[in-house]
Design brief:
Strand content: 15-25%
Radius of gyration: 16 Å
Helix content: 25-40%
Structural class: alpha+beta
Number of strands: 4
Oligomer: single chain
Order of helices and strands: EEHEE
Shape: elongated
């Protein structure tokens, strides 16, 4: 997860609604790309048992026969 505040958060195109971050229409491509990468980093770090991007399977996450 990124540690510093990204530039897109300072943009007038960024909408910081609780549980609904998004960009307004017409945002520049560089803002869209930075936003996309940031959101992907958040998603990657929010996986169960993700420690420095190493995914560890626990028994409760495996399919039961």
């Amino acid at each position: 997860m990124p540690l510093k505040q990204p530039e897109f958060m300072k943009s007038p195109f960024f909408v910081d609604e609780p549980c609904n971050w998004h960009l307004k229409p017409g945002a520049p491509e560089e803002i869209k790309e930075e936003f996309r990468l940031y959101m992907q980093a958040l998603k990657d770090s929010n996986e169960p048992a993700n420690i420095t991007r190493n995914h560890i399977e626990y028994p409760y996450l495996q399919d039961e026969d």
